[in-house]
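Continued from yesterday's entry.
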Amino acid sequence: MAKTASLNPSLVTKKGAAVPAVSTPEAQQPTIGSSGRKPEKEYYKALTVKLDRAMYFKLKQTGLNLETSSQEIIVKALDEFLSKM
């Protein structure tokens, strides 16, 4: 069995005094695609939707029947709604 490191005062820092660990330069550089540009980050924003119990269970049951997630159902419904605007 491998010996574990002992916790001594040199490993413990006071709250607010911690510094980031040093990593290798390869981990810090972004990956460059075949176009030579940095890849764009996708943008997502979280949203909370409050549903009553009956609607929540209906959404979950529909997801089970269609073998899809609640998020996919809501996003598809929202896309359809917004396309009519």
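--- second protein ---
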Amino acid sequence: MSLEPGNEVDDVDDDAGNRIEGATPRAVLEYLARSIVDDPDAVVIDVEEGRRATTLRLHVAPEDMGKVIGKRGRVAQAIRTVVRAAGARDQVSVDVDIVD
């Protein structure tokens, strides 16, 4: 592949401004939710970007709600912790809401 003058490829990340905000935390949340539930096709994640943080709203089938929340909310809290860590890696503040 030869480059003509003026068409040089530089090492600058030109698409840095085109990244989707909260893409990594959303992917992590989707992976975790689909792994836990019995009906992974019913997992839907809505993304809402606010001033302070990006909110990920997790929807699962009604019969899977108990699995996602867990005893005393421990599974839900663990999911929130892991997703926030994924957001911190991308320097994004993320909240997770589990919606009925």
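Helices lie at 23-36, 65-69, 74-89. Residues 81 and 96 are 9 Å apart (CA to CA). Will compare against the first tomorrow.
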